[in-house]
Amino acid sequence: MSIVRWVVGVAIFLAVLLLSFSNAEQVTLRFFEFGSWQAPLIFIVFCAFALGVTCGLLAGVLRVARLNRELKKVRKALLAYEKGAEPTADTDPTPLPPPVPPVP
Known about the structure:
Blueprint: H1 2-21, E1 26-30, E2 36-40, H2 41-83
């Protein structure tokens, strides 16, 4: 799956790069009534692409951080359960089922 992700990412990058090289003339980017900015189209397309990649990576990092926090809570609750202690306020108060005895 990781190889497919890299192949798709490289293909999209090359498509945007080739599109940008074929559209290198100056364009005006208008910010509603607040002002305007002139730059080569290649630069504007690249900036939009980089902004999209950055937003996607940030969303992924935030999701991983949230999942790591949840995993830490679950591990703490499991450790407390294995020791026979009552769950603390920061762990999930729902009790876990009793452990399954080993099969002889």
